[in-house]
Amino acid sequence: MKQAIGIDIGGTKIAIGLVQEDGTLVHSTEIETPTKSRDAVLSAVVDQVKQHAHTASAIGIGSAGQIDVNQGIIRSGTDNITDWNNVPICEYIQQQTNLPTYVDNDVHTFLLAEKGAHKNVLALTLGTGIGGAAYIGGQLLSGEWGGASEFGHMSVNFNGEPCNCGGRGCVEQYASGIGIHKRYLKAGGEATHAGEIFSRALAGEKRATRIIDEAEQALSTAIVSLIHCYNPSHLILGGSVATKQQGFISSVMEQVSQRGMSSLVKPVTYHVSQKEYAGVIGAGLLAFEREGKA
Amino acid sequence: MKQAIGIDIGGTKIAIGLVQEDGTLVHSTEIETPTKSRDAVLSAVVDQVKQHAHTASAIGIGSAGQIDVNQGIIRSGTDNITDWNNVPICEYIQQQTNLPTYVDNDVHTFLLAEKGAHKNVLALTLGTGIGGAAYIGGQLLSGEWGGASEFGHMSVNFNGEPCNCGGRGCVEQYASGIGIHKRYLKAGGEATHAGEIFSRALAGEKRATRIIDEAEQALSTAIVSLIHCYNPSHLILGGSVATKQQGFISSVMEQVSQRGMSSLVKPVTYHVSQKEYAGVIGAGLLAFEREGKA
């Protein structure tokens, strides 16, 4: 069976693996991200890739941030890596390895690892921020240059507070880890991260309960809007908030099924990702997906 | 050049025409919609179609409402036609004419008539209600059964008033003709339709100005969310509000370019449809689009 190299570049770790066309992970390694410079990251990646280059037919890369999928450029990646903007990563790795190389946003590649047999599916990652991906009509949606599916920056309140994206009242301000934390502090609470606020809401603290209830309403509203837009059959949830806050996710999905057009929201199933190496697997699958279209 | 029959079924008129693959309208007729029964509509359509059936290779239909594009069924159409729900329109017309027949929502077909060479484009019709369509990666998005692109029912206010769709604070409640009219009445004003309220806002009436300003903010917020979701290069606007209220549309699009992620919103161009027979042409083009995939 054909194999591709999947690379998942994060701000703290880089995971690299050999992935089969059916999504089986044959081998994987993890290294610490050398955050001090762009060149350090690129040469660390090439070092790892070269160990597998003889058995693979292509390379797929998943990276946080805005990715130009047509040009193979990381337009704006994680702030953790120095000078990690406008990186022509595909051109560089292709030159060093002689293998066709593709890159996409890491939530888009995550979706590829998790979509199963669904032809119309959305992915939402709920962590410090909120990321998104859409696979509709059997096609991973990129849009004009690859910037599609910024679901964290759908507004759920047009009179809301300004968001760093330039908009107002984005769902990320209400329902991401950072958003929940900020709103709790602003309401006069003290906590070091969102996990504490979830725990306090469960324990019945009024302030925390109000913030979490609002997160639930904002997130379910955004998910209903997404279902109205894309008519998916399935929803994939990932990220630390999804994996750790099961009660929260159940309430959100219960609200989703009760709001909105029943013909669209009722049939939608969902699962929370449990796959440990979804990032690497999805990156490998991206290479097969793009090779199929080349 | 190949020709298809395009049929645009509305609550008051049905337009039928012969359309070339390049979008040229060769011939067209319009009849009053026989609203008294489903059978009256279907036989009127078949009568018209038979006049052109010998020169066409396929039939495309655009209809308001929820359309099951896989089964060729109008799930819920306009209330103006008696018993116009769950109509297996493709099966019926195919049997009567022996031509392959396809149906889709009329905003989806409108987009096909207006998209030009764009590969990533959204359409929004702003009339009594708000409709939508998305063409991304060179593909008309249908979703699981054809219910995609209900852009009027994106929420812009998760604490807003209940909408008849089941959601809350949908953009249609703020920026459609009916929405603007309702909000003006609720604010204590008197008017017979939205057009009057636009005129009074232009004349400086405070109440009307407040309602129209709110419509502008709600609509620009929804459009920014759509651009964040789909990364289109272009936006098509249609419907009576778009064609008649040029100042309103200019302000909305000015706000769009200033809100949201600049990498996504800045490059988006737009036009307001001026094509008289976009409905018929789009329906004809739908037939070619689907034949190409069959």
Automatic annotation (TrEMBL), chains A, B:
GO terms for molecular function: N-acylmannosamine kinase activity; UDP-N-acetylglucosamine 2-epimerase activity. Signal peptide: none annotated. SUPFAM superfamilies: Actin-like ATPase domain (SSF53067). It comes from the Bacteria. Pfam families: ROK (PF00480). Gene3D superfamilies: 3.30.420.40. PANTHER family: BIFUNCTIONAL UDP-N-ACETYLGLUCOSAMINE 2-EPIMERASE_N-ACETYLMANNOSAMINE KINASE, ROK (REPRESSOR, ORF, KINASE) FAMILY. Belongs to the ROK (NagC/XylR) family. This is ROK family protein.
